[in-house]
Amino acid sequence: MKPKFLSISEDIIEKIKSGELQPGDRVPSENELIKQYEVSNTTARKSLLEIESRGWAQRIKGKGTFVLNRTEDHHILRTLGSIDSTRRGFNESLKAEGFNPKNIVLEKTILQHGVSSEISGKHYIMEGPILKIHQVRYADDIILKDEIKYISLKLCPKINMMSTEISYFKIYEDKYNLKISDIKQNLSTMILMPQAEENNFEVSDPLPAFVLDSVVLCCSDTVVEIEKSYYRGDKYKFAIVANPEYYGNSVNTERKI
């Protein structure tokens, strides 16, 4: 008979192949496998080691075991409206998929005036002072994302003193005790020409890009963050979560393609 740990590992690998577990998703933990399959901790541990040794996942110390990105074209799937994905942050998500993330900050300044964003015909306004962070995000040696964030310094004082590689969503919740009530997002597309001022992707040919406009709201619909980002259209795919629940409130994801 086939060893139990092999049966378990093959079961999980099939879930990865079928898409039930996506790149960056956490594989069931050792304790979860023990409960689900009613096996010993030794069998559960060997199952996880087998999945990792066959190249389907990797363990990140203190975090868990995560599905690697094995797609031939290395397209990265991101889910709009996913609180877990947003909370995890860009760098942590890429590490979980087996990439080496890197950020280069193009601008980090404090604005005294307010900024606004229009999402699905509605204007959202953030009063100053505001931290503006403009950075390009790499996976290995490829720029995947050109990101501009505006963060309220009224709600998050001295956040400008922190590293730009953090998950800001976690900081809002953990350090500033903000209860995130909603996320509003628009997703559109455009072609970035090589000579265009907004093209920071270091490419010599026209580049298809996703444009994501996002607003993060906390208590009483107060704007804590506004983001405008460009994603490489040849490296990304987006999925949509319709009306997920977060702290009992709906997070509405709006899409314009």
Write a structural description:
The protein has helices at residues 4-18, 30-37, 41-53, 83-88, 90-96, 168-174, and strands at residues 57-60, 64-67, 76-80, 101-111, 115-119, 122-126, 130-139, 142-152, 182-192, 207-218, 222-232, 236-240, 245-246, 249-250. With 257 residues, the chain is α+β, with helices and mostly antiparallel strands. A 6-stranded antiparallel beta sheet has the order 4-7-8-11-10-9. A two-stranded antiparallel sheet has the order 1-2. Strand 13 (245-246) and strand 14 form a beta hairpin. The longest helix has 15 residues, at 4-18. The chain starts with a helix and ends in a 7-residue tail after the last strand.
Instruction: Trace the largest sheet across and list its strands.
Output: 4-7-8-11-10-9
Are there runs of 5+ residues with pLDDT below 50, and where?
Answer: 246-257
Q: Which sequence of SSEs, written as H and E, runs from N to C?
A: HHHEEEHHEEEEEHEEEEEE
- Characterize the largest beta sheet: strand count, sense, and whether it forms a barrel: 6 strands, antiparallel
How far apart the termini lie comes to: 52 Å
Query: What shape does the CA trace take?
Result: globular
Structural class: alpha+beta
User: How large, in whole angstroms, is the Cα Rg?
Assistant: 20 Å
Number of strands: 14
How helical, in percent, are the residues?
10-25%
Count of alpha and pi helical runs: 6
Beta content comes to 35-45%
The average pLDDT value, as a whole number, equals 87
